[in-house]
Every structure is written in C-alpha cells, then in structure tokens.
Amino acid sequence: MALKSTVFKARLQVTDMDRNYYEEHQLTLARHPSETDERMMIRVIAFALNASESLQFTRGLSSDDEPDIWQKSLSDEIELWIDLGQPDEKRIRKACGRARQVIIYTYQQSSGNAWWGQHKNKLARFDNLSVVVIPEPAVAAIGRMAERAMQLQCTIQDAQLWFSNGEQAVEISPEFRKRAQGTGIRA
C-alpha cells in the first residue's frame, strides 16, 4: 500500500519591500512521503520570494513534467518555473525551453556545491535561468517551523528575508550562483 501525502495549511503574509508586494496567501501544501520538513519549507520560502496572485504549487515530486511551483499566464504559457534541489541538466534544459524564467533553489550546501561545480559551465548558456542557494543553517531553522497548521510572516528587503512563525524568526540571505539576464529576477 502506497503512503499518502500529508496535508499542511499555511497562512503566509508576504511583505516584499523590494517589489512593493504586500499580500496574504492561504497555502495548502501536500508533503510527499519522501519529502522532508526542510524541503517543504523551502517551497514556502521560494513561494514567498516570488509571490504573486497567479503563483501556485504543482504536483511537484509526484510529476516529472511539472516544477515544484509555477506561474502561468492567462493563455496557459509558463511564465515562471521553480524547481528545488539539484535537477539534472536535461530537466533544466526542458524547463528553460518551456518557461520564460526558471529559478532553481538549492539548499543542501555540500552536495549543492558539488552539483554546481559539475553543471555551472553547461548551465551558463541558459539566459533565463537563475540558481539561488538557501544557506544550510537557515534551512535547518525553517524546517523546525513546520506544523500542520502554520501562521507565517515573511518580510523581504534589500534581498534579505526575515521569516517568522510568531515564536521563532530566521534571517535568510539567499546567494546567487547564476542570475538570469534581462528578466528582472525576483529571487
């Protein structure tokens, strides 16, 4: 018998002073049985950094044809494709061909550094690709915030992120390995 996903609910208040974006989002996250709390919370961070009314979670780990998060236009074109971890070059090439903008958030520092070292020359050709590292100490701290029902606040200013659940707060400084050209990358 296959294990089922665990459903988490989050009320996420985003205050993004860099983009003048101030909204509250009601999120439903299905955590795949193989997904850790840390990875699920990185999805929330990626959502907050790119928040918009049309941004949405996909089937993620359950689908090879979809990213973890995407934003589609009214004509069903993929405007933003967000993947987490260390996808292979074939998946990245496919994403860059299908979406206007692609962002990969890595969060496991040692294996992420090895992955980047192996792929950086191949990925340099993709002008619509950004690769962002979420530092490992922040990953562990936000993983401890995971609960079935969450009240989260995220403030973004000068490319710094403050993430809180009312009891704990974490400062996150995302680091760019590669920044997309001419897209006004949000991070």
SSE diagram, text form:
Elements lengths: L5 E11 L4 E11 L5 H13 L5 E3 L11 E4 L5 E7 L4 H10 E8 L2 H15 L5 E5 L2 H8 L5 E9 L2 E5 L4 E4 L2 E4 L9
Parallel strand pairs: 1-8, 5-6, 6-7
Antiparallel strand pairs: 1-2, 3-4, 4-5, 7-11, 8-9, 9-10
Helix pairs in contact: 1-4
- Give the CATH H-level superfamily: Restriction endonuclease-like alpha-beta roll domain
Number of helices: 4
- Terminal-residue CA separation: 39 Å
* Chain-averaged pLDDT: 91
CATH architecture type: Roll
Global morphology: globular
CATH class: Alpha Beta
Strand content is: 35-45%
Largest sheet: 6 strands, mixed
Please provide the ordered H/E string of secondary-structure elements.
Answer: EEHEEEHEHEHEEEE
Which stretches are low in confidence, meaning pLDDT under 50 for 5 or more residues running? none
Helix content: 10-25%
Structural class: alpha/beta
- The name of the CATH topology is Restriction endonuclease-like alpha-beta roll fold
Radius of gyration: 16 Å
Strand order of the largest sheet: 3-4-5-6-7-11
Count of individual beta strands: 11
Q: Could you state the oligomeric state of the chains shown?
A: single chain
Number of domains: 1
